[in-house]
Design a protein that fits this description.
Length: about 280
């Protein structure tokens, strides 16, 4: 049945209501990274939780039942950071592919400021106790993770969701530290806010795994600037993720806007936005 162009009021009221990324299948992984590189990539006033041994976080999943789109693949790479009492992941970038990728990217960027782009290929595969997940964009493999189920790289590493099951899931708190900005096409960027994206996860399955992580860069996506130096561990999981709240925790003064945008633009726009000669033919 075809509907008219203008959306009725009750549909507007339901926009992204109870939005959730359900039935995620794939991996989460953690690695210590280079302290100098981590500090360079983190925009003020964010701080590293552990300046001596900063922790990087990533995930690659198939979101099989999102509430706002067909299924899609998603992955990201970032740093565990803090601002005052707020602790969360500061993503240097997230990639999406698959039938629901466009709505997943637009909804995340416009509602919460997530640094999302579309990519050509995300793969999540597992055979027995071995897994291989990767993200490719522009012919470059930005993230490649090989896992072996059984134990973490670091035996001392533990997570809250260990021991969960479909009949006895485990809910964990989680957050992202995000930026939303306003832009005037004639006068540039006019405001930036730092947001706390309160996002719990319900785990139905979690299998401890060791991981080998390779991070790469292209001209458009400089993920390799945040290397995985010492892998802590990974987990093969099935989970639901949703948004509990979004709060403004810092407003940047106008004189800082230009410098802060230097940190933010690479995760949201390609070099073609800044370079006149940017054609590619295949």
């Amino acid at each position: 049945m075809h509907k008219g162009y203008v959306m009725p009021r009750n549909d507007i009221d339901d926009f992204m209501k109870d939005g959730a990324m359900k039935d995620q299948y794939g991996i989460q992984f953690f690695a210590a990274t280079d302290p100098k590189k981590a500090r360079e990539l983190l925009p003020p006033p964010l701080d590293l939780v552990d300046p001596e041994r900063p922790l990087a976080y990533g995930y690659i999943v198939n979101i099989r039942q999102p509430t706002f789109a067909p299924w899609y693949m998603e992955g990201g790479w970032g740093l565990i950071a803090r601002h005052e009492q707020y602790v969360g992941v500061y993503f240097i970038g997230l990639m999406l592919s698959g039938p629901g990728a466009l709505m997943g990217a637009f909804s995340g960027r416009e509602t919460a400021g997530l640094p999302k782009k579309l990519c050509e290929r995300i793969v999540v595969e597992r055979t027995g106790d071995e897994g291989h997940c990767f993200i490719e964009r522009g012919g470059v493999r930005l993230l490649d993770v090989r896992t072996k189920i059984g134990a973490y790289n670091d035996p001392s590493f533990h997570t809250e969701q260990e021991g969960c099951s479909p009949d006895s899931p485990v809910d964990t708190d989680g957050a992202c530290l995000l930026h939303k900005y306003s832009v005037d096409g004639f006068s540039g960027f006019t405001s930036i806010s730092l947001l706390n994206y309160d996002s719990p996860t319900r785990f139905y399955s979690w299998e401890a795994a060791s991981a080998e992580i390779t991070v790469g860069s292209s001209n458009d996506d400089r993920w390799g600037e945040l290397p995985a130096r010492d892998v802590v561990g990974a987990g093969w999981m099935v989970s639901d993720n949703w948004v509990r709240g979004l709060s403004h925790i810092h407003e940047y003064p106008r004189e800082e806007i230009a410098s802060i945008m230097g940190y933010l633009l690479p995760g949201r726009f390609d070099r073609s936005v800044f370079e006149r000669n940017h054609q590619r033919y295949e």
